Amino acid sequence: QWTDSIRGLTELIYSLQEQGAFNNGRADLKSITLCFEKTFSVKLGNTSSTYQQLLSRKKGTSSYLTKLQEKFEQRISKIEEQHLRSR
């Protein structure tokens, strides 16, 4: 079950679609959205409206993706620190 923000999931969906991450880049936003709704037990509603809201942000349009990147890099740093301590 998805428990984070709808905007965050919308950012993720649009980014993955743009990346061509599904069906060799041939999957459309509607089918990706339906898959995410089913997989994560969430209703996203009008994703194009949510996307328009993301575009109107004053502080960056991809804050969720930035946060994900920061968390991933923090995880890598922790693992590297643990590896150095265990030597």
Give your account of this protein's structure.
The protein is an all-alpha fold and about 90 residues long. The mean pLDDT is about 95. The protein contains 4 helices and no strands.
Give the radius of gyration: 16 Å
What is the count of helical runs? 4
Beginning-to-end CA distance, first to last residue: 39 Å
Can you give the mean pLDDT? 93
Report the order of strands and helices: HHHH
Q: Give the low-confidence spans.
A: none
What is the count of β-strands?
0
Shape: globular
**Strand content range:** under 5%
State the helical fraction: 55-70%
Class from secondary-structure proportions = mainly alpha
Biggest sheet features:
none
In short:
This protein has 87 residues and is mostly helical. It contains four helices and no strands.
Write the layout of secondary structure elements.
Elements: H1 6-19, H2 29-40, H3 47-55, H4 63-85
Task: Please tag this protein with its features.
mainly alpha; 87 residues; single chain; 4 helices; 67% helix; globular
